[in-house]
């Protein structure tokens, strides 16, 4: 009876409400939330053909696969393996892949809460969880078949093990951190962050623990060696290696974007939100003269700074800032309470001031979430519906050329699907059928006048009729 009474506490009530709220948001719009899109379509295609053809790459035509895997595959086996297993057991389809992402999201939220509770206590953990589950980009990035959230799952698992003493525990921490780094190319920054954390501990203890460093490195090395193996082609050259470095260093070959991206942090709401969270944490450390840093905070801070620097060199899409932005929710509430303790003499302000700020942020994020959750970026059944209708129209033995929509190509049932698309400024994949005058029976693309590739072949437009349109997707048939 006493245990039942303890369960119905205000803390447990709020936690239960947050969990129910999170479950509802994760399940919303399944399987069309978040909307299938370009990068996700590539990842889905790789997992599909890994299961069906035994080749870890994207199929661009009958018996044709992308050979330059390092320039194509940015989300790797720590996620795609589980998607492939789901396909193997339940068949290839969108819901099978989205189910994997839902599982990763639940694990992520649990690890996130556990890490915050371990280092900052249950009240801060509750505040961190509340801010996390009302953060709209969590559902855009987290429900897409992308490596962002799975990589963070491995990272948080490794951080939870980072203070352990037994050899197998330290090795496991390294293994999880290595899997996180292998999940997404940007997460190679985990390695530098953890190394910085080990330097921090060595300086703090005035001693280098070589055994610990070797165990961490040994654990991380195994998944990273597998990662390298999945990407290295048979005809490896120094030029190919340089192209890979160029891709990882600047995915979209952007120039002169740093100042424009910096300006976003005073002019756009999402970067401003990031700046508020980070500024609060940094100010809390300043007033303590940086004496209160713990090991995990050192690792997180280095990663957040490195991710921020990487973001400044990109085209400015917020998903490049998403990992650092999300991790700030772990350390923000505790920093806010430290500032309160330092400056609030008034008893009422000290008791309720920081909590009020958390509630305001929670409310603002919730309003933003509810007004935008039905945005086509977050919920859009049209790609799946278009693919279903196209499959009913097109015989499976006809040639189908898909331009710029790998998410649709993944859902097609035909045996002769061709893909032609620029995956980045560094790589265009597929065979130019028009140049070979090998005109396909069907073409799936945006409108002929809007598609760059089709605009170069306007003379061919009179060979095709438009027979199906749904949203931005169009199906053309050869006359």
From TrEMBL:
Topology within the bilayer: Multi-pass membrane protein
One Pfam family recorded for the sequence: PMT_2
TM stretches of this protein: 12-30, 97-113, 119-138, 168-201, 213-232, 262-284, 296-314, 320-340, 352-371
Keywords: Cell membrane, Glycosyltransferase, Membrane, Transferase, Transmembrane, Transmembrane helix
Major subcellular site: membrane
Compartments in which it is found: Cell membrane
MF annotations from Gene Ontology: pentosyltransferase activity
InterPro entries recorded: LipidA_mod_glycosyltrf_83, RgtA/B/C-like
Cellular component aspect of the GO annotation: plasma membrane
The name this protein goes by in its record: Glycosyltransferase RgtA/B/C/D-like domain-containing protein
Species whose genome carries this gene: Candidatus Falkowbacteria bacterium CG10_big_fil_rev_8_21_14_0_10_43_11
């Amino acid at each position: 009876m006493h245990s039942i009474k303890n369960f119905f506490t205000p803390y447990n009530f709020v936690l239960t409400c947050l969990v129910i709220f999170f479950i509802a948001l994760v399940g919303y719009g399944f399987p069309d939330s978040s909307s299938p899109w370009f990068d996700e379509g590539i990842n889905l295609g790789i997992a599909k053909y890994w299961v069906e053809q035994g080749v870890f790459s994207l199929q661009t035509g009958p018996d044709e696969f992308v050979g330059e895997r390092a320039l194509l595959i940015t989300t790797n086996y720590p996620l795609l393996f589980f998607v492939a297993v789901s396909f193997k057991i339940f068949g290839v389809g969108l819901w099978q892949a989205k189910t994997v992402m839902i599982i990763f999201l639940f694990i992520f939220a649990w690890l996130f809460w556990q890490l915050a509770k371990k280092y900052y206590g249950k009240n801060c953990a509750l505040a961190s969880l509340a801010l996390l589950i009302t953060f709209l980009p969590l559902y855009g990035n987290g429900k897409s078949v992308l490596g962002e959230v799975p990589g963070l799952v491995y990272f948080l698992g490794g951080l939870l093990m980072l203070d352990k003493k037994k050899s197998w525990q330290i090795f496991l921490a390294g293994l999880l951190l290595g899997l996180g780094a292998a999940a997404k190319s940007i997460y190679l920054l985990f390695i530098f962050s953890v190394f910085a954390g080990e330097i921090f501990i060595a300086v703090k203890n005035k001693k280098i623990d070589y055994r610990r460093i070797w165990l961490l490195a040994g654990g991380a090395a195994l998944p990273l060696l597998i990662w390298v193996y999945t990407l290295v082609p048979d005809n490896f050259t120094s030029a190919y290696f340089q192209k890979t470095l160029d891709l990882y260093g600047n995915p979209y070959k952007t120039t002169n974007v740093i100042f424009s991206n910096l300006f976003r942090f005073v002019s756009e709401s999402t970067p401003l939100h990031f700046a508020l969270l980070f500024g609060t944490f940094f100010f809390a450390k300043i007033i303590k003269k940086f004496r209160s840093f713990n090991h995990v905070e050192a690792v997180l801070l280095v990663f957040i700074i490195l991710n921020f620097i990487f973001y400044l060199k990109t085209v400015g899409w917020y998903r490049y800032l998403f990992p650092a932005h999300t991790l700030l929710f772990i350390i923000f509430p505790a920093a806010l309470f430290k500032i309160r303790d330092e400056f609030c003499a008034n008893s009422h302000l000290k008791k309720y001031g920081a909590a009020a700020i958390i509630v305001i942020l929670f409310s603002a994020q919730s309003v933003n979430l509810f007004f935008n959750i039905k945005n086509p970026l977050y919920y859009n059944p049209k790609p799946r519906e278009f693919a279903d209708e196209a499959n009913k129209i097109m015989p499976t033995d006809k040639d189908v050329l898909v331009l710029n929509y790998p998410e649709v190509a993944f859902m097609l049932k035909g045996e002769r699907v061709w893909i032609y698309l620029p995956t980045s400024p560094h790589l265009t994949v597929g065979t130019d059928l028009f140049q070979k005058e090998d005109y396909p029976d069907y073409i799936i693309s945006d409108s002929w006048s809007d598609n760059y590739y089709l605009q170069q072949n306007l003379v061919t437009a009179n060979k095709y009729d438009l027979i199906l349109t749904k949203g931005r997707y169009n199906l053309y048939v050869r006359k």
